[in-house]
Amino acid sequence: MHPDDLLKFSLADFTYNDSPNVMDPPQDFERWVGDPRIGMAMSFFEQPLQGAPTPRMTLRQGMSGENRQMINLTSYNYLGLSTHPEVVAAAVEALQTYGLGASGAAMLSGTFDQHQRFAEELAAFKGREACLLFPSGYAGNLGAIQGLLQRGDVLVIDSKCHRSVVDGAKLSGAKMVSFEHNNPASLDQMLERHAGKRRLVVVEGVYSMDGDIAELPDILDVCESHDVPLYIDEAHSSLVFGETGKGLVEHFGVEDRVGVDFGTLSKSFGGIGGFVCGDANLIQYIKCYASPFQFSCALPPAVVAAMRKALEVATRDNSLREKLWKNVNHFRSNLEALNLDLGGSRSQVIPIIVGSSGEELIQLAMAAQQRGLFLQPIDFPAVEAHARRFRISVSSQLTPEDIDEAATIIEDVIARPLGLVGAA
Ligand SMILES: Cc1ncc(COP(=O)(O)O)c(C=O)c1O
Questions:
Q1: In the chain, what is the straight-line distance between the N-terminal and C-terminal CA atoms, in Å?
Q2: CB distance 369 to ligand 1 below 6 Å
Q3: Which uninterrupted H or E stretch holds 330?
Q4: Domain for residue 328, yes or no?
Q5: Which of 93, 125, 246, 298 is buried most, with the most CB atoms less than 10 Å from its CB?
Q6: What is the rounded CA–CA span in Å between residue 412 and residue 123?
Q7: Considering the domain boundaries, does residue 23 fall inside one?
Q8: Is the CB of 74 under 6 A from ligand 1?
Q9: Boundary-marking domain end, from 276, 295, 315
Q10: What rounded mean pLDDT belongs to the chain?
Q11: pLDDT of 286-298, one tens digit each?
Q12: Is 233's C-beta closer than 6 angstroms to any atom of ligand 1?
């Protein structure tokens, strides 16, 4: 590998390890990752926050190693529930009662009264008969898909579905195929091609890299015409979309047409955990065959107690959701004025698509960080190579001043250098 060529490679190129010894990573990978230019890009990974994921927080910067006050546009704490005083108080109180960990898998000793009540409350919130909690959202998709499918079945997913869905297919042994993103005609073709098989379609509510939303009514029409059930991953849309925060199914009024409703507690809920809601007999069945549920410790009871409070706070009125949407609209109008490419975003996830140059993306990211913006660059292969980007996660906790200041920095360090507004 010639040094001049190093930047042509990405993380997508080193998954195959040709070393004879499994303990040795590929030599090319070591050469690549050791290059200072790649090191600079890597320095954006795992930068430690020095406090809560609030809009103003301190980050230890990967490049300089120094702590710096930042405006945080990266955390998934959409409704600020991670630091909501009532949520934190519920966790503290439960810690005193239950101790730290669950100390067991849910089937054996890891289920506490908190878990059972929360599962009932989540099911009621989603308007479903039952709900199953998982240690994480990733584990939830893995387990639910494993529980639903088997060898010989076909999982038909939107091409932009999350890795946990893809890995769920692997664990289940089912064949996995994808249809063009949000394209009902492509879905129709895929379902037709696999007619005669047991099939399941998976889409997301809000797509996490693009912030666009599933065209649910059209997708459901296609599913129903093939008599195939739909599984929706509402990781980024629960508590954000719909009159009462149920998610995209409520936004479109299609609750009764969706078979399985999946969510995670790590985004708007501000905690950790995954949950799957559906008919009672189905949830009972998944419970018995989902390895990530069976063979992993249950969620800490104090986290569950805090998540119960988070659900209560987020649903007792619409104030947090309304604040979030006000902030989304404010931020969007600032960004639109800068002529930035925001893709098809229709949610609190707003990408700023900057193009195909990885080097340019990292240069812009460095400049943003130097000006005090915690705004992560998203590079290939996480997104397509022609659409490298930044991704803003809007929070209800941002003040109008935070948003305006962040937009000014974006104007100076992204829009101007890209020539989208007046000269730098
Ligand atoms: C669409 C989607 N599904 C599932 C997950 C996994 O959730 P968690 O991070 O809670 O494990 C994520 C996480 O980013 C996601 O974006």
A1: 37
A2: no
A3: helix 319-337
A4: yes
A5: 298
A6: 46
A7: no
A8: no
A9: 315
A10: 96
A11: 999 999 999 999 9
A12: yes
